[in-house]
Specification:
mainly alpha; 0% strand
Length: 290
């Protein structure tokens, strides 16, 4: 069982928490019906993501065997056969689509479109687009904000322009940071050819640009929120989170944002504090408004 859980990358499901952003900041997430609806949508999207992870690992099995870390993945190591992996991927994909159809109550809807876009982009990524510079980073970036748009579609909430721009810039920062860590950690000649097109200095500049814009857009968004104007108070906390993240990412060269979040207790505490403050400001309005 452990090898299958590792194959579907349950740990990566933390990225899918972005699905809850739209209803959280809209002030509707604590409604029981909305929360249960979002949980089901979360599970559906996670199943689809796992099917993509399996497909990607099957495609890259030979290259992964040459990588010092990826060679221990279940498919690359031979712990799970190609046949069983393919069967698991198909089952998860069908289960994800059927669950989403049940949640939406229709065969096709806006949320379906975002899932289809995510799936299509990642299939293209696995079968060659990941070797094209810039395009590979943009696909990594798109995966983050598609999750946000998908979550908004599930609960019928509109994503404001400032939030949309904030998510895009944070996503670009994360995606570029992943490439920077990979570029520093390996040559790119055996496991990821696209890395030879990037220099650490170039990636640093893109990260700095996207981070500055993300903080700017977040500040503008939080100051203009109709639900609670007090969210502007969270800007210093967001700065502390990204400063801590950047320090660790540069020092320890984490290849994936998920690994860093799971490994660092201060970041976990800061994010938890942000969540509690957000809950208080968005769902306890009577305590803050005069």
């Amino acid at each position: 069982m452990k090898k299958y859980l590792q194959m579907i990358r349950v740990k990566q499901y933390i990225k899918n928490s972005l699905i809850f952003i739209a209803p959280f900041f809209a002030g509707t997430l604590m409604e029981v019906s909305v929360f249960l609806h979002m949980l089901a949508g979360f599970a559906a999207f996670s199943f689809v993501c796992s099917s993509i992870y399996i497909m990607n690992d099957m495609k890259d099995a030979e290259k992964d065997r040459l990588h010092p870390v990826k060679k221990s993945r279940p498919i690359a190591s031979g712990a799970v056969s190609m046949r069983k992996a393919a069967a698991a991927g198909i089952i998860l994909l069908i289960a994800g689509y059927m669950l989403l159809t049940f949640v939406q109550g229709e065969w096709i809807g806006e949320a379906h479109i975002y899932v289809l876009a995510y799936f299509t982009l990642n299939v293209g990524y696995s079968f060659g687009l990941k070797n094209i510079p810039i395009v590979d980073i943009m696909i990594l970036t798109s995966g983050f904000f598609i999750r946000v748009l998908y979550g908004a579609a599930l609960c019928g909430t509109q994503v404001s322009n400032w939030l949309y721009l904030t998510v895009i810039m944070i996503s670009l920062y994360m995606g570029t940071g992943k490439r920077r860590s990979e570029r520093i950690g390996e040559s790119g000649e055996t496991t990821r050819k696209v890395l030879q097109f990037y220099s650490p200095y170039y990636l640093d500049k893109i990260m700095q640009m996207s981070l500055i814009l993300a903080i700017t857009f977040y500040s503008l968004w939080s100051s203009s929120m109709a639900v609670s104007s007090y969210m502007i108070w969270t800007v210093p906390l967001v700065l502390a989170i990204v400063m801590r993240y950047e320090m660790l990412a540069e020092r320890d060269a984490y290849g994936d944002p998920t690994d860093l979040i799971f490994a660092d207790r201060p970041i976990q505490i800061l994010v938890a504090v942000y969540g509690m403050i957000g809950l208080g400001m968005l769902y306890g309005k009577h305590r803050f408004l005069p």
